[in-house]
Design brief:
This protein is an all-alpha fold. The protein has seven helices and two strands. A two-stranded antiparallel ribbon has the order 1-2. The protein is elongated.
Length: 153
């Protein structure tokens, strides 16, 4: 049998076995993200659109307190609570990036757990290649939304 040509061997992907540390890290990250979703689902969204995080004993937003303007993260927890209660429209009004981040979080958990259980992947760097651009896009959306809110406040 002829050895595989460069073209055919290039198309095949080898499975990369994950280390115990990587598998444990994927499990821990999945559990932490699932806990964040569970906490957000448990919270009652604040009717003002911001401040839901105060139910956890956290202080109010420093920018709102001292400058009277919302920061890019204002409404993030409230948007998660709305989204996880099925009210995406209210979540988008509170913080668009919050809804996107919540959906991304919910989508990535099963991927992390499947990888941890299987213990192998076709590419060790898939998580950063997928998650980093998505997270950068969400941050840029958050900043853009914040600038729009400032301009029309």
């Amino acid at each position: 049998m002829d050895p595989p040509t460069t073209q055919t061997s290039h198309l095949r992907q080898r499975s990369v076995h994950l280390t115990r540390t990587e598998r444990t890290g994927f499990i821990l990250l999945g559990v932490v993200l699932a806990m964040l979703l569970a906490i957000a689902a448990w919270l009652n969204p604040d009717p003002s659109g911001i401040g839901t995080h105060r139910q956890l004993g956290l202080p109010g937003c420093t920018m709102v307190t001292y400058f009277g303007i919302r920061c890019p993260g204002c409404g993030m927890t409230t948007s998660w609570a709305h989204t996880l209660n099925g009210d995406i429209q209210s979540g988008l009004r509170c913080n668009t990036a919050g809804v996107l981040f919540c959906v991304f979080t919910a989508a990535i958990i099963p991927c992390l757990l499947v990888l941890a259980i299987r213990g192998k992947t076709s590419n060790r760097n898939w998580f950063s290649r997928v998650s980093v651009p998505v997270l950068i896009a969400i941050v840029l959306i958050s900043i853009a939304e914040w600038l729009i809110r400032l301009a029309f406040a």
